[in-house]
From TrEMBL, chain A:
UniProt GO BP: fatty acid beta-oxidation using acyl-CoA dehydrogenase
Database matches in Gene3D superfamilies: HUPs, TPP-binding domain
Organism: Acidiplasma aeolicum
Coiled coil: none
Domain Electron transfer flavoprotein alpha subunit C-terminal: 171-252
Keyword Isomerase: no
Sequence similarity: Belongs to the ETF alpha-subunit/FixB family.
A Gene Ontology molecular function term of the record: electron transfer activity
Annotated keywords: Flavoprotein, Transport
Protein name, entry field: Electron transfer flavoprotein subunit alpha
SUPFAM superfamilies xrefs: Adenine nucleotide alpha hydrolases-like (SSF52402), DHS-like NAD/FAD-binding domain (SSF52467)
Keyword Transferase listed: no
Residues annotated as domain Electron transfer flavoprotein alpha/beta-subunit N-terminal: 36-142
InterPro entries on file: DHS-like_NAD/FAD-binding_dom (IPR029035), ETF_a/b_N (IPR014730), ETF_a/FixB (IPR001308), ETF_asu_C (IPR014731), Rossmann-like_a/b/a_fold (IPR014729)
Automatic annotation (TrEMBL), chain B:
Domain Electron transfer flavoprotein alpha/beta-subunit N-terminal positions: 21-208
A Pfam family reported for this protein in Swiss-Prot or TrEMBL: ETF
Protein name (record): Electron transfer flavoprotein subunit beta
SMART domains membership: ETF
């Protein structure tokens, strides 16, 4: 069994490779980044700059040559473009946003539905899939994959300019301990009251969507959830987060979830291992004092 | 300018409850506009306000989709079309039905959401762009038009880019592009009286995946909740002390 993986984000390539290499032989097409050679692919095809049209061409060509059983595309903005184009050009139907794949008699996949409220388990004989980020941890191996540079044709697209986003500079997706803040923190200034806990635990700071996107107390790349990062730390500490389904969708991979919320009825208490019902600032102070001992 | 906006109606997922087996209870659930369809409508109306033109709102839906089209009318869409026959989420079927309708209508811009709020499929825009053989601008957070060119700011995962393409184009929008307007009572009243074109789509669902189950995931969390803070702090710091070493 052979699969071809595509991702324009090296980290996603690593996650997908770790997951699918346990099930089949894999090749990867990835943006040029040496880290991708460490995830167990037979062959890695690198490109430096590509768009949906020329990358789709390259994937079709490689697939014609190597006759892959499956093509898995990382669900990023570019990845979804490529999946749609591949599908329209080749007639291959595409199953989207899977986070589970098994291939016995039939292909069994799972994806979130109803905005993350349910999990849809399906059987099909599809060959093309988009894969939700965070399907696995990215586990590096000793062996280094062979690599080759892809020659891409000219694209009709061209980037006129590139604008950097404000970034926290830290990648929360591989953190061991995450302290995550919600609207309950109240203001950007209040974050400094949380920092002693972050420091003492050597944790990384993350947040809910309103905190990262609407109020910008944190940067966009610190957002956890359905439309943010899916994280898998040993401990996820949710402070003043109500626990709406779109947030929970990002923390299903956490080993232990700890929630602090002053509202006893907050849904986060149904989705945590340990919870304290109280004002988050007083609990954070007490935790820090206790951990200092 | 001739603008098409693609409008999806979904169930109101905030009100969705599940039964003891985790199955969603769909009976009598209110319907609403897909979140990004609303952003797409707002983006279309803003383009019309700035540059002039006509907006056609198109939904592959059912008889019940009239409420979605009325909402779109109230926001500023000029003509509403329901392609009737939607049964379930299958992006290929949706793409075929919509393509058959739009292929010969000479739209300059086709606007839709980047990912719909129930399925998150996110492949309708590229499938349509490929079928129409026109360029695609994905996940836009800003759109400007000069002459026959569309200049869009596109939000990618790690940075944003600016791209320009000559019309006709397909543009998918991100939620950050705008805050959809709330129509006033007058606009809602007027929208209620406007005619809606309904066309039978006769979709072909034959190669859909087979749904084995669709249920709320069971949480395996321990749910040990402390109402006494000091007890909770003692237990949790014990756990964390082990981990942070
Ligand atoms: C398509 C879509 C995608 C989405 N994607 C995401 C996503 O990726 N990530 C995400 O997080 N959300 C996402 N959301 C938004 C989500 O539905 C919720 O609105 C959001 O998660 C709520 O954030 P919150 O918990 O910080 O705020 P709130 O729901 O307002 O909760 C704040 C909580 O803080 C508590 N609180 C207040 N003060 C204190 C205090 N002093 N001490 C202790 N507790 C206190 C309150 O009791 C309350 O429970 C998405 C929504 C949609 C429609
Ligand atoms: N049944 C439909 N009718 C009209 N537009 C749709 C339909 N389904 C999806 N769309 C549009 O396509 C966008 C992306 O949907 P999807 O590709 O299914 O995630 C949505 O935000 C809508 O704008």
């Amino acid at each position: 069994m052979r699969g071809l993986l595509f991702s324009d984000i090296p980290k996603n390539a690593g996650e997908m490779a770790s997951y699918f290499s346990k099930k089949m032989d894999i090749d990867i097409i990835s943006i040029h980044d040496e880290s991708v050679l460490k995830y167990g692919a037979s062959k890695v095809y690198f490109y430096d700059s590509g768009f949906s049209d020329n990358l789709s061409d390259a994937i079709i060509k490689l697939n014609d040559k190597n006759k892959y059983d499956f093509i898995f595309i990382s669900s990023t903005v570019l990845g979804r473009e490529i999946a749609g184009i591949l599908s329209a050009r080749t007639g291959m139907k595409c199953l989207t946003e899977i986070f589970y794949f098994d291939n016995n008699d039939k292909i069994i996949t799972k994806r979130l539905f109803y905005g993350g409220k349910t999990v849809m388990e399906e059987s099909s004989d599809f060959h093309l899939f988009t894969v939700a980020p965070g399907i696995s941890s990215a586990d590096t191996l000793e062996k280094i994959s062979e690599s080759e540079n892809l020659q891409l044709q000219k694209s009709i697209y061209e980037i006129k300019s590139r604008l950097d986003k404000n970034s926290g500079g830290e990648d929360i997706s591989d953190a061991k301990i995450i302290v995550s803040i919600g609207r309950g923190v109240g203001s950007k200034e209040n974050i400094q009251k949380i920092e002693p806990l972050v420091d003492i635990l050597h944790a990384k700071l993350a947040g809910s969507r309103p905190v990262c996107l609407d109020y910008k107390w944190l940067s966009e790349d610190q957002q956890v959830g359905l439309s943010g990062k899916k994280v898998r730390p040993d401990f996820y500490i949710a402070l003043g987060i109500s626990g709406q389904i779109q947030h929970i969708a990002g923390i299903r991979g956490a080993k232990t979830v700890i929630a602090i919320n002053k509202d006893k009825t907050a849904p986060i208490f149904d989705e945590c291992d340990y919870g304290i019902v109280d004002d988050l600032f007083s609990v954070v102070d007490k935790l820090v004092n206790e951990l200092k001992k | 300018m001739n603008i098409a906006v693609l409008i999806k109606q979904t169930i109101d997922m905030d009100q969705l409850k599940t039964n003891e087996n985790g199955e969603p209870i769909l009976d009598n659930l209110p319907l609403k506009l897909d979140i990004l369809s609303k952003n797409a409508i707002e983006a279309a109306v803003q383009l019309k306000e700035k540059y002039g033109g006509e907006i056609t709102g198109i939904s592959f839906g059912t008889d019940k989709t009239t409420s979605a089209i009325k909402e779109a009318y109230a926001m500023g869409v000029d003509t509403g079309v329901i392609l009737k026959g939607y049964k379930k989420s299958n992006p290929h079927v949706t793409a075929n039905v919509i393509y058959e309708y739009i292929k010969d209508k000479n739209f300059d811009i086709i606007i839709l959401g980047n990912q719909s709020s129930d399925s998150y499929s996110g492949i309708l825009a590229p499938v349509l762009s490929e079928k129409m053989k026109i360029p695609l601008l994905s996940n836009a957070i800003g759109i400007e038009i000069a002459d026959k060119n569309v200049k869009a700011t596109l939000e990618l995962e790690e940075y944003n880019v600016i791209q320009t393409q000559a019309m006709p184009v397909v543009i998918s929008v991100a939620q950050e592009i705008n805050n959809p307007r709330l129509p006033n009572v007058m606009q809602i009243m007027k929208a209620g009286k406007k005619e809606i074109k309904i066309i039978d789509a006769n979709p072909n669902y034959s190669d859909s995946p087979n749904v084995i189950s669709n249920t709320a995931p069971k949480s395996e969390r321990k749910r040990i909740i402390f109402e006494n803070t000091d007890d909770g702090v003692a237990e949790i710091s014990r756990l964390l002390r082990g981990a942070s070493r």
